[in-house]
Write the C-alpha cells for this entry.
Amino acid sequence: MKLHLILIAVFSYIISFAYASDGPDKLRVVNGDFSDLSGMTANGSDGWYAGLPKGWLGSSGTYAVHAKRSATPPSCNPSNLGFFRQNVGVLDKASDVTLTFDISEPWKPDVLLNASILDANLTELAAGDFKVGAKQTLVARNVPAGTTIIVAFQAAKSTPGIDNVSVAVAASTGPAAPTAKTEGKITVASYYFGNYHPGDPRNVKSKGKDWSEWELVKAARPRFPGHHQPNVPLWGYTDESDPKAMEQKIAAAADHGVDAFIFDWYYYNDGPFLDRPIDIGFLKAKNNNRIKFAFMWANHDWLELHPYKKGAPRTVLYPGKVTPANFEKICDHVIHDYFKHPSYWKVDGKPYFSFYDLTRLLENFGSVEATRAGLDKFRAKVKAAGFSGLHLNAVAWGRPILPNEKVPVDSAKLVRDLGFDSVTSYVWIHHAQMPQQATDYNVVRDAYFAYWNRALKMFDVPYYPNVTMGWDSSPRAHQDDEFGNFGYPFTNTIAGNTPERFKEALAMTKRRLLSKPGGPRILNINCWNEWTEGSYLEPDQRNGMKYLEAIREVFGTATAAK
C-alpha cells in the first residue's frame, strides 16, 4: 500500500512539473522588472525615464520608470501610464493563471494599485486593488484553453511603484468555465446630432438664415502635422430636415446594421431646439418604418462654440436647467408627439428615454427626492398613455468634456436613488485620457474597455456599451488660433481610427456582450454625424461607406421597425 501511494505521488509530481514547465513558454511577461530601458528617454539626471517600457502598452508617461527607486530598481510608475498592460500569451489548456507583482511607495505614501487579468476582449477574468507589499498575487481560475491573457495595472490611489511582474499557470482547480454563447440579436443604436440644416429659429437669430454647422466643416483645416482636415461628406452638405435627405440616411443605416437613431434632443425653458431633423426630416421620411428612433435629452448648457475663439468668455446661450413645470410639459410632449409613433424605440415594450446630464437633471428639482418624484410622475404619465412602462437611461461620465459639465460625486448611488433602468456612455473620451495631440485609437479603446469592466461592478442596472468612431473637435475651434489641449473645443484628438480598427472594436464589443448569458444585447455608437467632433458614420470622400460596412460585417443588416 505504501509503495502504491509513493508511486502515485511521484507520478503526480511528474505531471505537475511537466505542466508547470510548459507554462512559462506559453505565458511570459516581457520586461517584468523594467530593467530594459531601451527606447525610453532619460528625463534629466535624476533617474527618471520617459516613455513606455519595452513590452508594455499604455500612455507615454513623462515620469514612467525610475532607475534607482524601490528595493530592486528600476521601478515603474503606472500612475503616469494610464491603462498599463501587456499581452502575455495564449493558454494551451484550461488553467489557473497567477499574476505576481511587487508594490512600493517610493514617491508618495498611501498608495493603491489596481491589477487585473483580462482576455483578448479586455473582459475581466480577475481583478483587485492592492496595497504596498512584495509578491502580491492575483489569480484567475478555470480560464478556458485558447484564451489570450492580458495583464493590466492602473493606479487606484496616489503613485504606486510596481516591479517584478510575472505570471504562472497551473492546472485548473475547479470545473471548466462555461463556453460563451455566440447567438442572440444585438440592437445597434447610433447617436444622431441634428445641427446640419438651415432654418432653425435659434440659429437664424444668432448666425443667419442659411447657417448650419456644415459651415464649420467646410472651414476646417489641418492644425498639426499629420492632421486630416477638412472632412468632406460623400453625399454633399445635405439638409437633414429635408425628408428626402433623411430617407437616404435611414436607408443607409438600415442596410448596414444600424437599428436605431438616438437623437440628441434639445428642449429648454423657452422651447425646443434642433427639432427640425426629427419633426420634418425623420417623421416625414417615407421609409421611417425601417429604423427605430429614440431621444437622449441633451440637457446641458448650450454655449457659443461655433466656432470658439481661444480665451473668449464661455457664453451660455441656453441654460440646460428647466423648471419642474416645464419638465412636466416636456414629459407630455414626448409621450404624445413621439412615444406613440410606431417607430419609437422600446426596450421590453417600454419607450427608451435617456438623460445626458444628471447634474442638470438634479438642478431642475433641487434634491434627489424631488427629482425621483418628478421621474416617477413621468413614468406614471407613460403608463396612463397606454404603455407598459418607461425605460429611463442615464448617460454616466468619468471625465467632463464640455465647459460647465460636472461629474456627480457618486454616479452609481445617484442612478440607484433616481430609479434608472440602465446606464450607458456617449463617447469614449468621457472615460479615457488622451495624453497626446494625436492619441492612438486603440489606446483610447482599451482604456474605455477597462472602464466598462468597472461599470459592470459599479452600477446595479444593465450597462449598454459604446463604440466611438473617432474624436476631433478642431472644426469648432477658431481656425486662426493655435491648436492645442487648452480646453474644449481645443482638445487632443484620436488618430488611427481606421475602418478596420473600428470594425475590431465592434467585434470585441459583440463578443463581450454575447459572453454574458442573460446580459444586455444593446450597444450604441458615437456617432452618425458628429462631423465637427470627428466622429461620424456618414460616408466621406476619404473612406466612403467603410465605417457603415464595418457595422454590417459584424452585425448584419438591421431589422425593420415594427
Remarks:
- The mean pLDDT is 93.
- DSSP finds twelve helices and 28 strands in the chain.
- The CA atoms of residues 137 and 150 lie 15 Å apart.
